[in-house]
Amino acid sequence: MKTQSVSSYMLANSTRNILAKAQADLIKAQQESTTGFVFDKGLTLGSRTGQSISLRKEYDRLSVLTDTNGVIKERMTTSQDALTNLIKGTQDFLGTVTVMSGGTVARAVAVDKAKNLMQTATGLANTSFNGEYVFAGVNTDVKPMGDYDAAGNPARAAVLQSFQDYFGFPTTDPQVANITAADMKNYLDTSFSAEFDAGSWSANWSSASDTLVKSRIAPSELAETSASANSAGFRQMAMSYTMVAELGDIGLSQSAFDAVMGKATVTTTQAISSLADTQSFLGNAQARTKDATDRLGVQLNVLNSSVLDLEAVDPNEAATRVNALTTQIQASYALTVKIQSLSLLNYLK
Question: Where are the domains of the chain?
């Protein structure tokens, strides 16, 4: 029969092994107590580890969608604010052109307002969010509209050329006083209006795309979450401002001037309605995005509960283990010190 050796060295070495294991267990217990989840999923869950991984991947995917929807919401809010200001401007302008028709108010007043509102509208059409132009369609990196009054602007050049081609002389010619109301009305309904149809608008006015931004707001749901400066409201608004800015104070007879104001009144009214339609379109997209985000929130809660059922630990039990292991380690340190102090020399003294 073999007798086990008993020595202070073996006692100290045995204590050292116990201490190392206790320290490793303490690290695991501390992490579980802090995070609330098991330290080693594979060891704890066994065959259910794959289920846990799948739940976490789905949770992360839906979380990304939720965060993206938040950005989409802010972008659409920015677009709505710009549209609200555009509508306010056109409503203000409608009041001006309405009282100008047949009135005695200085024509320069309407012209100045039209020019100022055109500049404001251009700035609003070029509204950006996070470095992307919200009314550019999918061309989010391109400014939708240029400065109408800038030198060499193709839109203004085309408008002035259409007047000269139709009447045979430029807007600065004294013959403008001889233009009849019927001729002016026909020009505005034909050559002038053609400068604001979809083809001419894209060629001379806008760099925006007709294709709207589509966003994935849910795993199986896409929504158009932008508006384009190519829409009817923007074109009608620009048409109204332009006809008054370019023709309002060139020396037209009262009847021809009234024809301009009458057309501007109609076009401005149409612009207000069309811009409101664009707002409604974005409003529907906002509602869909909110509903999708709410549904994602419910799914995230379910997934979170499922993960907790698999991986969560009892925080009280984890804290108890931390305390117990800490006490054990302290006791081991104390015992090690006692064992290391054992010596035959000390005994013989």
Answer: 55-302, 315-349
3-state secondary structure the chain: CCCCCCCHHHHHHHHHHHHHHHHHHHHHHHHHHHHCECCCHHHHHHHHHHHHHHHHHHHHHHHHHHHHHHHHHHHHHHHHHHHHHHHHHHHHHHHHHHHHCCCCCCHHHHHHHHHHHHHHHHHHHCCEECCEECCECCCCCCCCECCCCCCCCHHHHHHHHHHHHHHCCCCCCHHHHHCCHHHHHHHHHHHHHHCCCHHHHHHHHECCCCCCCEEEEECCEEEECCCECCCHHHHHHHHHHHHHHHHCCCCCCHHHHHHHHHHHHHHHHHHHHHHHHHHHHHHHHHHHHHHHHHHHHHHHHHHHHHHHHHHECCHHHHHHHHHHHHHHHHHHHHHHHHHHCCCHHHHHC
Supply the pTM of this predicted model: 0.78
For domain 55-302, give the CATH superfamily. Answer: f41 fragment of flagellin, N-terminal domain (1.20.1330.10)
Query: pLDDT per residue over 249-295, tens digit each?
Result: 999 999 999 999 999 999 999 999 999 999 999 999 999 999 999 99
